[in-house]
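The aim of this short unit is practical: by the end, you should be able to scan a pair of folded records and say something sensible about each. We start with the first protein, listed as its amino acid sequence and then its structure tokens.
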Amino acid sequence: MYKLAAMGDRESVLGFKALGLDVFVVEDVISARTTLDQLAKEEYAIIYITEPATEGIESEIAKYTPALVPAIIPIPSKSGGNGMGMKAIYNAVERAVGADILGDK
């Protein structure tokens, strides 16, 4: 059975535990890279990752992008977002539909 995970700074991801997700606190690029690779191997279907935690591990995220599992979804942190998550959604919709139906990115 597939699992769900949230990874990022403690304050941003701890609330996901109440929703039944497995929570992984990452403090730096090395722990984020290691955790992402481990979660992908452990049958996590969806991995929510805070936008600041994605900085520096873009190549690791890109290697999982073509696969159906895991779906890596950037989310804003407790201090807000930088727009990366919305840009990823726009790109995914454009790839799926073949046209930009949501408007400007």
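Turning to the second protein, read its sequence before its tokens, just as you did above.
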Amino acid sequence: MDEFVVLLIVAVVAIGGLMLIGTPLANWATGNWTSTGNFRLLSSFDLGRVGLSGNESSRTVNLGSFMLGETQTDVLKDMATLGVSQGYFGADPKKFDMPVSANILATLKDVKISFNIEESNLYGNLVFKWNDKVVFDKMANLRSYEIVIPAADVKASNTLDIVCGTPGLYFWAATSYKLIGFKAIAEYGPEKFLSFALYPQEIEAWSKGTLRFSTPGQAGEITIKLNGYEIYRSSNPERQVTKEFTYSDIGGALRVGDNVLSLKSTSAFAIDNLQFEIGGPSGAKEREVNATKDDVALLNGAGRGEIEFNVDSILKEGALTIKINGKQINVQAVTTGKNTVQFDSGEIVEGRNTIAFAGTGSWSISGVKVRIVY
């Protein structure tokens, strides 16, 4: 009994000592040591899959050919054929949503609706309503028509209704029209806007992106932006243009869902076969970390740098490497769960810094924290 009491007192004193020097009890008990003291967080992010997988994760978005420096067009609706009818005992009207993006709306000239009448019994009028306002109401013969909606009547969200008038004395029949080559086109410009979707797994696996197009070699300057972030500018560009981007180049501009490319030029430019290639081999992952003058001073003084990260799973065994601004830091063998590596003063500079994860294996990494401990 006396021996048990002595052991209990020793254990209490040991635990108390650990608490006094600031070691968290849970970490001491589990062996999961973490940083003690104060820290300043510079950045936190998830990486997803890092390293070599041997698989391609890529998709090419074809954005077409067009002329810069002139009026641009955006197709709101395009249908090869559609029919409408109206009788006393039934009807087949059509209703379409016609959203117009804010970018296009800002420089919108008009919306033009064009179509051909292929069949009609001419029992009643063909009627178009734009946002419940009648913009076309006539007996439509077998020919082409164009309806112009002024910019003042166009909003971000619009509706187009196509209906027929009643058949009059032909109470047993129905007014009917068959339209072919139906198009609703927004005219705007001269800046060109093109949208494409990015999915969460594509941003997670992003290794590089590639912009490609050709020009006939006119004189002038072309500027291309991604979600407002400039990614290309050139005076007198080459006939074949290929521009690659790493995540660090444009990572801040990427977003899940709709992404918008905007193109403008100082003169008329023909852009042929514009393509945006997404992804590539899943290998190195880079992220940008910004540091202030005070951050650098703290690191060069009493602080030390740490990168903490979680290895959610090891997909392929190998050696993980981490580089800061191109300089490799010491990384021991990593294990599933929390890992921490240190970096020295002088590794981080004031302003933009690039941290790259790569390796001969493959890992799923999340919860990365770059910090200065002091």
